[in-house]
């Protein structure tokens, strides 16, 4: 129950990022299948299901790649078998093969390089500018081309990442429960201790990637919280009281989120009234335009130079600048 309650809490807070609910659901499902593979025989179907869910998560969001190492480590730790870990990773490749074929047919590339994400919030590319710039960089190319920016993120990223962790968990109160639960002795209960270690193995590489590479991007961390909440709930019940499960203040921003969603709906109606189906719109909030306005949309570029290149490739029918990204 805790898994799905926290998933709904997270999903409700992501009204503008349409892939986040699916991303959270796939990672959660993959982790549960992986856990069950250590408790049931034959384990192969559960391992395959875990890999399939991880592959679907990676096809939904590029951030899914941050979970590959943790899932592989957890599979080996649960089974002490490289062949079973390889089975899970093999299943992960199935959805990604379909994604590669689609990418090649649509854009002429097999996979989208995460190189631009290495440069988010860097000195040369403040904010999200690297994602709206013409950069044909692989991850290695980003490191070699902008070494000082990467070095700065390595130094300052951990402190920034801690701040984003607190933000992701909705309240510092919940963060304290989670951290206490992850490093507490649960009275010698073997199952609880295995779950705690399992969660740490999956989460640790994700936190590292989140802090260093994407400089605290919240969507990397959110799928971990359904797993973490289980530990927090158990810790509260064992060492505190049921009253501690009341997450204080976590719904205070609910009204503001609902108002933001209503604004998105009205924006979609505005777009439908003033454009025709199929017309391409350049906007600072392309997700909202596509989902609520039912029109193809492309992100506005960082500079006019980049805009000219984009417009020459895909001419715009309209430009839409909003305050939704602020």
Output the strand order for the largest sheet: 2-1-3
How far is it from the N-terminal to the C-terminal residue, by CA?
A: 34 Å
Largest sheet: 3 strands, parallel
Unreliable residue runs: 248-252
Give the topology string: H per helix, E per strand: HHHHHHHHHHHHHEHEHE
Q: Count of helical segments?
A: 15
Averaged pLDDT: 80
- Gyration radius over CA: 21 Å
Backbone structural class: mainly alpha
Explain the layout of strands and helices.
Blueprint: H1 2-12, H2 20-37, H3 44-60, H4 68-79, H5 82-107, H6 115-118, H7 139-145, H8 147-168, H9 172-182, H10 190-212, H11 218-221, H12 225-239, H13 254-274, E1 281-283, H14 286-293, E2 297-299, H15 304-313, E3 318-320
Helix pairs in contact: 1-2, 1-12, 2-3, 2-4, 3-5, 4-5, 4-10, 8-10, 9-12, 13-14
Summarize the structure.
With 326 residues, this protein is mainly alpha-helical.
What are the main properties of this structure?
3-stranded parallel β-sheet, 326 residues, mainly alpha, globular
What does this structure look like?
Mean pLDDT is 80; it is low at 248-252. The chain has 326 residues and is mostly helical. It has helices at 2-12, 20-37, 44-60, 68-79, 82-107, 115-118, 139-145, 147-168, 172-182, 190-212, 218-221, 225-239, 254-274, 286-293, 304-313, and strands at 281-283, 297-299, 318-320. The longest helix has 26 residues, at 82-107. It contains 15 helices and 3 strands. Strand 1, helix 14 and strand 2 form a beta-alpha-beta unit. The protein is 64% helix and 3% strand. Strands 2-1-3 form a 3-stranded parallel sheet, with helices on one face.
């Amino acid at each position: 129950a805790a898994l799905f309650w926290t998933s709904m809490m997270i999903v409700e807070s992501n009204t503008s990022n349409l892939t986040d609910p699916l991303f959270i659901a796939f990672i959660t499902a993959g982790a549960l299948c992986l856990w069950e593979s250590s408790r049931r025989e034959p384990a192969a179907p559960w391992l395959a299901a875990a890999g399939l869910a991880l592959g679907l998560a990676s096809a939904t969001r590029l951030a899914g790649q941050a979970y590959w190492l943790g899932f592989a480590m957890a599979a080996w730790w649960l089974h002490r078998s490289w062949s079973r870990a390889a089975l899970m990773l093999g299943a992960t490749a199935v959805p990604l093969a379909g994604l590669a074929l689609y990418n090649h047919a649509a854009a002429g590339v097999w996979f989208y390089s995460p190189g631009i994400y290495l440069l988010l919030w860097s000195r040369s590319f403040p904010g999200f500018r690297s994602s709206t710039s013409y950069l044909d960089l692989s991850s290695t190319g980003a490191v070699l081309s902008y070494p000082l920016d990467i070095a700065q993120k390595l130094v300052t990223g951990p402190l920034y990442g801690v701040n984003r962790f607190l933000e992701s968990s909705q309240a510092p109160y919940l963060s304290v429960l989670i951290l206490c639960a992850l490093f507490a002795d649960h009275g010698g209960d073997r199952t609880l201790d295995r779950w705690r270690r399992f969660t740490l193995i999956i989460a640790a590489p994700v936190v590292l990637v989140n802090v260093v590479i994407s400089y605290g991007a919240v969507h990397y961390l959110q799928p971990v919280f359904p797993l973490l909440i289980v530990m927090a709930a158990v810790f509260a019940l064992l060492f505190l009281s049921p009253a501690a499960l009341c997450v204080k203040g976590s719904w205070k921003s609910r009204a503001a989120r609902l108002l933001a969603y209503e604004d998105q709906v009205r924006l979609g109606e505005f777009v439908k009234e003033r454009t025709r189906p199929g017309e391409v719109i350049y906007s600072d909030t392309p997700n909202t335009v596509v989902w609520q306005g039912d029109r193809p949309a492309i992100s506005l570029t960082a500079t006019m130079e980049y805009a000219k290149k984009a417009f020459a490739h895909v001419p715009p029918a309209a430009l839409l600048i909003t305050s939704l990204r602020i």
